[in-house]
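Researcher: Good morning. I'm working through a list of sequences from a screen, and I'd like to move beyond sequence-only analysis. For each chain I'm collecting a predicted structure so we can compare shapes side by side. This is the next one on the list. No need for commentary yet; just the structure.
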Amino acid sequence: MLTDYVKNWLARADEDIKTIQLLLKEDRGHPNPVCFHAQQAGEKYLKGFLAYHDLHVRKIHDLEILVKDSQGVDESFAELMPQARLLNQFYTESRYPDDYVEFSLQDAKDGYEAAKKIKDFVLSKIETPH
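Model: Good morning. Structure tokens for this chain:
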């Protein structure tokens, strides 16, 4: 059901997508924040899907686990595993100085595409008002 809780997950994910778009505008964005927001968007869309099905939303950041949880509702979520794997690398490595990795602009663009695929897939599986 499309509750306020679900709508909030999707709205926060949309904010991450809009942030990415601003950061990538004219290829002047810094790749690491783009990568981080791409991971966050994917995470929030998947959690929104789980919440839509009234399932417990775990406080985790591993998209592979969230995809597996989603597969419990709809096996076709397995096709999102490559995007989940790609986005997983951006969580810790883009946030913490001790683990900092400098991602490329291509990494950022690939992360954005992965996040958009998750978004489109999730939204195709839930009923949203038009």
